[in-house]
Design a protein that fits this description.
Elements (H helix, E strand, L loop, with lengths): L15 E6 L5 H11 L1 E4 L14 E2 L5 H15 L5 H13 L1 H17 L2 E6 L7 H5 L6 E6 H6 L5 E2 L1 E3 L4 E2 L6 H9 L1 E3 L7 E6 L5 E4 L5 E6 L5 H13 L5 E7 L6 E5 L4
Parallel strand pairs: 3-8, 7-9, 12-13
Antiparallel strand pairs: 1-5, 2-11, 4-10, 5-12, 6-10, 13-14
């Protein structure tokens, strides 16, 4: 099983994307479910390992009229069953109290962001940092997804943007999908090495999605994988009923690199 490792992969759309997975604890069953059933788990932003995840810089150029229109909509969304007279009172209260309005806006934005489900993928299957971070110190696996097949299954991955400053989001004037994707698809520059792509479900946090079309085409075994886990992956690949290639990652004998050794089909 080969991998996309050419130098220009960041500048072009890769044919494959990869998901690092562990066998430790409950992760083992999730890994099996991914390989056998193509069932993808979408964590909420707060479940991820970056404390800056989905924390944009809030700005607005809204006029007083635009701001009031936003407040009316906000109160209706947050309190849909509230009596009309009470909603009007709440609107007046928020419109007159800047700190209270600001806190209410942040709370509503946080609810929307934390409802988004994120499935992270990488364009780098042989990264020396991600194998220990996400695949249990090279004891796990790296699952290969075919990007064209993902798109055909109506699951379109978005490339993550890396920046030194948090994205500026105007939640009053910008359409929700625009500022939401800006917040979800921007990370700090320190994470650039991950070359991350994301599947995003706007109201899909902490939910599983099973893909019907074949999108997983291979699995890379970590360099420290145990013989038992190696056999388990070979069995899962066969159990999937799809043509899933399996490759073995090894430590390069003289360089700080990882290499892939093909395994014979079973």
């Amino acid at each position: 099983m080969s991998a996309d490792t050419s130098p220009g992969i960041v500048d072009r759309v890769p044919l494959h994307l990869y998901k690092y997975k562990s066998f430790a604890g409950e992760a083992r069953e999730h890994t099996r479910d991914l390989i056998v059933n193509q069932r993808l788990w979408f964590p909420a932003p707060r479940d991820l390992n970056d404390p800056f995840e989905c924390r944009p810089h809030h700005v607005t150029t809204a006029t007083p009229r635009e701001r009031r229109r936003y407040i009316v909509g906000l109160v209706k969304r947050v309190h849909p069953t509230m009596p009309r007279h009470e909603r009007k009172r709440r609107v007046r209260l928020l419109d007159a109290d800047n700190p209270l309005f600001h806190q209410s806006m942040l709370s509503a934005t946080e609810i929307t962001l934390q409802a988004a489900g994120i499935f992270s993928l990488s364009a780098r299957p042989l990264d020396l940092l991600m194998w220990p971070h996400y695949a249990d110190n090279h004891r796990g696996v790296c699952v290969r997804f075919d990007l064209p097949a993902l798109v055909e299954s109506d699951h379109i991955p978005f490339r993550v943007t890396y920046a030194d400053e948090r994205p500026s989001c105007d939640t009053i004037l910008e359409p929700t999908v625009d500022w939401l994707h800006k917040a979800v698809l921007t990370k700090g520059a320190a994470w650039r090495y991950e070359q991350e792509w994301r599947l995003v479900r706007n109201r899909g946090a902490r939910q599983a999605v099973q893909l019907s079309k074949p999108v997983i085409s291979g699995v890379l075994l970590g360099a420290n994988v145990s013989p038992g886990d190696r056999e388990a992956v070979l069995q899962w690949a066969a159990e999937s009923g799809r043509p899933v290639g399996v490759g073995q990652v090894k430590f390069h004998p003289s360089r700080y690199e990882l290499v892939i050794e093909e395994l014979e089909p079973r």
